[in-house]
Amino acid sequence: MVDENLDSVQMPPAPSGMRMPSPSEEGESPSEEMQISAINQEEEIPVPSPTSEEQIQMPSMQMPSMPQQSSLGYDEMQSIVEEIIDEKWRDLVTSIGDVSSWKSQFSDDLEGTKQEVLRLQSRFDAVQAALTGKVSDYESAMRGLSQEMKALEQVFGKILEPLTSNIKELKRITEDMREKHK
């Protein structure tokens, strides 16, 4: 199927001095297909020489033709430009909205945000002051507890020695009583 499509394709003619291999020659070895390069052959290359201005025609790229208008005056051109600018400005204003109202709304929002930040700052300061107060209360309570513990230790130290001596004496007395009862 591919061969049928290739057979229907027509190749452009080869430049002079070059020979295109025929489909039957394509299977032959490459050395039989090679010929001497046209560059190495010394043939005269004909150079066209223009004989008149009319014969030289450069291909021109023309813009699509626009209807010819009579030349507009400066004032007319200026008024058209102003109308276009006004129209574009109106479109911009309608799409963006009134810039001054947008600016005032943004300023109000910014001011509100600043006020909220100040309120938060005062709240943080109040929380910090409360925490500092609680920590100092806790610290003073711990100092008081420490002093009470030291006082209790001293009291126990004073009470403990007579108590132990009294216990030893009571033990001695009970042992004496047991021996007497036996």
Please, could you describe this protein's structure?
This protein is an all-alpha fold and 182 residues long. Helix content is 64%, strand content 0%. The protein is built from 4 helices and no strands.
What key phrases describe this protein's structure?
single chain, 182 residues, mainly alpha, rod-shaped
> By helix and strand content, what is the structural category?
mainly alpha
Please write the string of helix (H) and strand (E) elements: HHHH
State the end-to-end distance: 137 Å
Number of helices: 4
Summarize the biggest pleated sheet: none
The total count of strands amounts to 0
Computed CA radius of gyration, to the nearest angstrom = 58 Å
Average pLDDT taken over every residue? 76
Regions with little confidence, pLDDT below 50 for 5+ residues: 28-32
Quick description:
With 182 residues, the chain is mainly alpha-helical. Helices cover 64% and strands 0% of the residues.
Give a topology summary:
Elements: H1 2-8, H2 30-33, H3 74-96, H4 99-181
